[in-house]
Design brief:
alpha/beta; TIM Barrel; 2 domains; six-stranded parallel sheet; three-stranded antiparallel sheet; binds zinc ion
């Protein structure tokens, strides 16, 4: 090229745009990839902004941990977490437990308190199978529509169910729909819990085929990814053996949310 390149923004060897003297070339594919990566990080960015706003409100957080939640783990560690929402369901849970069993891995189940209470035997089986049980509120409301006290009550009631069943306390709370605002964030902080979000959404609840679920995950997964799936979805259960095989083939270790957090979340 004989024209002098003024700007050459390069991400993973993909040039997004080049501005040369007299011409401007735009690479749409590169830009889409860049925007997609940015979108994957948006929850992390939102969390950072909220942490920052809290530090403005209450002054420096000092010795307290600066982060109050996690959308994905350490981007330099080849680990991912499998998470299952909205359980326990009346049907399909035993199949899910059995599908996970041969891989000797710990998955994280975000349980709806009222279901955990109603299907207590299944809740206990999940725990006995070695999985981590986390808080997904008591009634699965849209938390951002509630006052802070009401949000805390939703979290407390789910925690009480765990307590009554002699289960280890939940560490993360996943807001239904993944939607949160400053009140939700504040409630989590006051309850001394952590927001448990995700960065890979399989949309398995829409009735997608197992192959599509696997394809979505494998095309978007990265180091530290938290993969969102749902309890009691037959196609998800069917996808699991091949999914775990492909993740392992790419060198990912499958760990729990708490392991990801302890390894250093962003
Ligand atoms: Zn949910």
């Amino acid at each position: 090229m004989n024209k002098r390149t003024l700007i050459d923004y390069n991400k993973n060897n993909k040039t997004i745009f080049k501005m040369s003297a007299g011409s401007l070339n735009f690479n749409f594919g590169g830009a889409v990839t860049f925007l997609f990566r940015l979108f994957r990080l948006y929850r992390s960015i939102l969390l950072c902004l909220m942490t920052f706003s809290l530090s403005l409100e209450w002054g420096p957080l000092g010795e307290e941990r600066l982060r109050w939640g996690m959308a994905s783990g350490d981007p330099f560690v080849r680990e991912v977490a499998l998470t299952f929402d909205d359980g326990p369901r009346e049907r399909g849970m035993q199949e899910l437990i059995e599908a996970l069993y041969p891989f000797d891995l710990t998955a994280s189940f975000f349980l709806v308190g009222k279901f955990a209470e109603r299907y207590a035997t299944i809740t206990l089986s999940l725990h006995e199978a070695g999985h981590e049980l986390e808080n997904h509120t008591f009634t699965h409301p849209k938390l951002y529509t509630l006052w802070t006290e009401k949000i805390m009550r939703e979290m407390e009631r789910c925690n009480e169910v765990f307590e009554n069943l002699n289960l280890p306390p939940a560490y993360f709370m996943r807001p239904p729909g993944g939607s949160f605002n400053l009140k939700v964030f504040n409630a989590v902080r006051r309850m001394d819990m952590r927001l448990g979000l995700w960065d890979v959404n399989t949309a398995d609840y829409t009735g997608r085929a197992s192959e599509d679920i696997i394809r979505t995950i494998m095309s978007t997964v990265g180091n530290g990814s938290v993969i969102l799936m749902h309890s009691g979805v037959p196609n998800t259960v069917r996808a699991l053996p091949e999914l775990v095989r492909q993740l392992k083939a790419r060198g990912y270790r499958i760990v729990s949310m708490r392991d990801l957090w302890n390894a250093g979340a962003i």
